[in-house]
Design goal:
Length: 110
């Protein structure tokens, strides 16, 4: 599994984990949503679930469920601040198209 956190995202996730010491790491995956099909889900992992693939980067464990893995493998997660807005950004090599609002995406396999 190759999920990579860019330096800004890594620091942001570390700050979330420091504020929630009971969390095991970052949970990353997808769910059906929006007009294109898939939306990213980013949250703190509080348990390891059956089928999770787990990797680690600079002390941060990243949990991805087995169904999401083929759709997000190879993704780089970054974190950007633009004015008052702050958000995670995703560079996913599996993405074939994105909806106009940027809420969801599709893959060639979908």
């Amino acid at each position: 599994m190759a999920i990579h956190l860019a330096p800004a995202a890594l620091e942001r996730v570390k700050s979330f984990l420091a504020a929630s010491p009971q969390a095991l790491g970052l949970r990353f995956g997808v769910e059906r949503t929006g007009c294109s099909g898939w939306g990213y889900v980013v949250d703190l992992a509080h348990e390891e679930r059956p089928g999770d693939q787990v990797s680690e980067q600079d002390g941060v464990r990243i949990y991805v469920d087995a169904d999401s893995l083929p759709l997000v493998d190879g993704t780089e997660i970054d974190f950007a601040r633009q004015g008052l807005n702050q958000q995670f950004q995703f560079r996913n090599p599996n993405m074939a198209a994105e909806c106009g609002c940027g809420e969801s995406f599709t893959t060639a396999a979908a």
